[in-house]
Amino acid sequence: AEHAREVDRALAELRDRARAHLQRIGVVRFDASDSVSGRLSCALAILDAHNNGFVITTLYDLERSRTFLRAVRAGRTEKEPLDEERRAIEMAVQGGTSADAGAAGGDAHA
């Protein structure tokens, strides 16, 4: 009986620890400007079970590439995210998927 209680406690501790692991991913590929096609820009959200984590966004155009990192707490960023970042976070919160978006933010498709 005592052994079973120890096993139950150990399993509960493992479950709590697992919630902190990064496990939910959302990716949105898109065209950052009208001058570049091919969906070379992307927003990548990586979250734990509490929807905490980060979103990395790379904006690519012909002259330069820029990368940004935003913290995500409870599925939200401190500052207003780009539409593609918001979609990547929403995808991760829902369990993780990926999508491509048109330059004008068209409908996503896997």
Report what the structure shows.
Strands 5-4-3-2-1-6 form a 6-stranded mixed β-sheet, with helices on one face. Helices cover 26% and strands 34% of the residues. The N and C termini lie far apart (50 Å). With 110 residues, it is of the alpha+beta class. It has helices at 2-19, 83-93, and strands spanning 24-30, 41-47, 53-60, 65-73, 76-77, 97-100. The model is unreliable at 102-110 (pLDDT under 50). A hairpin with a 4-residue loop joins strand 3 (53-60) and strand 4 (65-73).
Structural features:
six-stranded mixed beta sheet, 110 residues, alpha+beta, single chain, disordered C terminus
Task: Give the helix/strand layout.
Blueprint: H1 2-19, E1 24-30, E2 41-47, E3 53-60, E4 65-73, E5 76-77, H2 83-93, E6 97-100
Parallel strand pairs: 1-6
Antiparallel strand pairs: 1-2, 2-3, 3-4, 4-5
Strand order of the largest sheet: 5-4-3-2-1-6
Shape category = elongated
Taking pLDDT < 50 over at least 5 consecutive residues as the criterion, the unreliable ranges are 102-110
In total, the number of strands is 6
Radius of gyration: 18 Å
Binned strand content: 25-35%
Instruction: Give the termini separation.
Output: 50 Å
What structural class is derived from the secondary structure elements?
alpha+beta
Return the string of H and E elements.
Answer: HEEEEEHE
User: What average pLDDT do the residues reach?
Assistant: 86
Number of helices: 2
Mind summarizing the main beta sheet? 6 strands, mixed
Give a quick rundown of the structure.
This protein is of the alpha+beta class and 110 residues long. It contains two helices and six strands; from the N terminus they run αβββββαβ.
